[in-house]
Amino acid sequence: MRTRAPFQSQRGFTLTELLVVIAIIAILISLLLPAVQQAREAARRTQCKNNLKQIGFALHNYHDVYTTFPMGANSQIYGPLVAVLPYLDQANLQDLYDFDVYYTHANNRDAINTMVPAYLCPTMVLKRAVPEEVCDEPGAPSSYGMSMGTHNGAATASDGMFSGYDGFSAPRPVRIRDVTDGTTNTIMVGEFNFQLEDYLWSAFTCPPLAGESRWGAHRWAPGYPGVGLGSTSGDFNVNLNANRETWRSDHVGGAQFLLGDGSCRFVSENINAETLDNLAARADGNVVGEF
């Protein structure tokens, strides 16, 4: 006669073993996540650098055509990033812009409220809607602004016509020949972010949101300091309202800059303030050194 094999029970995980496995998986995930986040940020930083290079090519193409860089201030208050749109494959967008009227005119709202991918760093976090409709805010956001220099009020040309603006963006045309410190040693475009928690809406700019955090006001169309133009007038990469004209980014440890020769550099937030000023001024004659 055939005998039946004795019943063998299937042994499962004990509660202790299950908890150990879960703990191991959690440790592995905790080790893996920072690496994934770093890889993603590296990709975003590369895209940001590519954006700046595109802007650099556009600015130099503009200079080739007009023998000057776009002005940072003009009677209609439009910014340099409006002027270079055709050189960023955005000619159709610029065709919507009416240069004969103020930038906030109704004729220009459709144009300036359009998001331009090349003007947005993928790392930058928008803490609010831009433009803010309830405030009738004019203009889509930007992560970048053209450099006014150190904004220290010192004249940088023999006739003093650039007084107060010693960078690439000035109330009068700046040409490559005016960058006597060398284009490789001068900041042309820098980064902004929307992390200014103490920058509040005022009753004048937006009565419905007066007293609430505005976070930032950086937009690509206006030619205003702290909006479409930046400088080294405050503490670099410090998120305070007092520094809203100063360069800041959401990258860890610093910000990226486009130099006058079209190259891009990531600059540590620990850079000496005097060195950063020397980089920002186009004709101060100071030696920049390592940065």
TrEMBL record:
Family matches, as Gene3D superfamilies: Glycoprotein, Type 4 Pilin (3.30.700.10)
Q: Which Pfam families match?
A: N_methyl, SBP_bac_10
Name this polypeptide is given = Putative major pilin subunit
Keyword Membrane present in the record's keywords: the answer is: yes
Keyword annotations for this protein? Membrane, Transmembrane, Transmembrane helix
Q: Where are the transmembrane segments?
A: 12-36
Q: Which domain of life is it from?
A: Bacteria
Q: Which residues form a coiled coil?
A: none
Q: Where is the DUF1559 domain?
A: 37-274
InterPro entries this protein is in?
A: DUF1559, N_methyl_site, Pilin-like, Pre_pil_HX9DG_C
